[in-house]
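Structure ticket #2291
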Amino acid sequence: MVKLMPYVDICLAHDENFGAVLGIKAFDNDTTRGIEQTDAFIKGIKEISAKYPKCQTVASILRNIHSVKDSEWIAIMIDHG
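Resolution: structure written out below.
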């Protein structure tokens, strides 16, 4: 995926994609407290835009997963900074 990123305009990065696919630390892999890490995700999103200037719209879903039936989800997006 990293080879494709210079050509990407819009990136939808799942919480685990930041580190595993893009090599950017934005999530500590604790799925019970992803929402609490919003600031780290925003920093990661800005790092994607800085590293890949063509990609100025980046979005992600943050999750607090307590069980299969009980979880909280939010979405964040940064467009042109």
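Closing remark: The chain has a mean pLDDT of 91.
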